[in-house]
Amino acid sequence: MAIELGKLGIWRHPSGVDAEFAAKAEKLGYGAIWLGGSPGGDLEYVDDLLGATESLVVATGIVNIWQDEPASIAKAYERIAGKYPDRFLLGVGAGHREHTQEFKKPYTALVEYLDGLDAAGVPVAGRALAALGPKVVKLSGDRTAGAHPYLVTPQHTREAREILGAGKLLAPEHKVVLGTDAAETRAIGRNTVKFYLGLSNYVANLRKLGFTDEDLEGEGSDRLVDALALQGDAATIAAGLREHFEAGADHVNIQVLNEDPWPAYRELAAELL
C-alpha cells in the first residue's frame, strides 16, 4: 500500500472538520481523517486539511458515484495528489438505493465508475471502495487499494480479510460513545444506529452477520446498538476496536458520537497509539 494510513483514523462529516481540527488530530497521532457522508465536487476543502498538516492522510468516505462523474472527480484527485503525494485516498461507493432515484445495479455501476477512473488516470493505489457484500469486497481488492466497510463488526472484518487476502487495505469504520452511564451512552448510540435500519443494504449485511428480525426492528435491540456503537470508558472501547485488528484490519476509523469528540479522541489515542 503506497498510502500509509497508520493504525487509527477519524471518520467525520466534512462540516465538522477544518484545518485546526486536522492539525489537532495529527498531533494526537491519528493517521487519517475520513470525510464521511457524500463529499464531492472539487474537494477543495481537502487541500486546506492537507495544507495544515505534515503527514496526515485525508480520505473520502465516500464519494457517491451517483453524484459525481469519474472525470470530474479525477480532476480533483489529480490536483490534490499532485500537491500532496501519497496523502489523499479517494474512497468511492454506491450509496443507498433509498436515496438515489436513478439507482441501478450497484455492482455494475461500480465497475463502470472504476473503468472511468482508470480512463481518467486515477491509480489503483490511490482509491478505495466502500464494500459490504463479498462480491464488492472482492472487487475492492481487484480494482482498488482495498475496502472501507461501514457499520460493521469484527466478524465482517474477519470475513473481508479472507476475501481480500494479504496486502490489500482493510479499513473498517466503527462508532464509539465515551461514557460510563450505560443508559446514556446506549441512547446516544441508538440515535445514530436507528437511521441505518431503514437502508436495505445495511440491513441485509447485518442479517448476514447474525442479527435477527428482533434485533433489526424499531430502533434496534440493545445487542445491535452495543455491537455497532462501542460504549464505555476508553479501555473498554479500545478492547472492542482491537478485535478489528485481530480480525485482520490494517486501519480502523472511529466515528465518535459524543457531542464533544475530543475527550474520546485523546483517550483512545492514548490507549491504541
Descriptive overview:
Keywords: Oxidoreductase. Pfam families: Bac_luciferase. The longest helix is centred in the last third of the chain and has 15 residues, at about 180-195. The protein has 12 helices and 11 strands. The chain has one domain (about 10-170, about 240-270): Luciferase-like domain (TIM Barrel), CATH 3.20.20.30. Strand 4 (about 65), helix 3 (about 70-85) and strand 5 (about 90-95) form a beta-alpha-beta unit. It is an alpha/beta fold and about 270 residues long. The strands form 2 sheets. Strands 1, 2, 3, 4, 5, 6, 9, 10 and 11 form a 9-stranded parallel beta sheet that branches. It has helices at about 20-30, 45-50, 70-85, 105-120, 135-145, 155-165, 180-195, 200-210, 215, 220-230, 235-245, 260-270, and strands at about 10, 30-35, 55-60, 65, 90-95, 125-130, 145, 170, 175-180, 230, 250-255. The mean pLDDT is about 95. The chain is globular.
